Amino acid sequence: MSGANSPIGEPSAAAMSPALRASHADRDRTVDVLRIAAGDGRLTSAELDERVEAALTARTFGELTALTADLPPVSVMTGGAAVEVKDVVRLDQVHSRVERGGRWLVPRRLEVAVHWSAVTLDFTEAVIAQDTLRIDVAMEGKTLTLITRPGIVVDADGLRLVHSRLKYSPAPTDPGRPPLLCVELVGQKVYGRVVVRPSRRMFGMRR
Question: Is the pTM here over 0.90, yes or no?
Answer without folding.
Answer: no
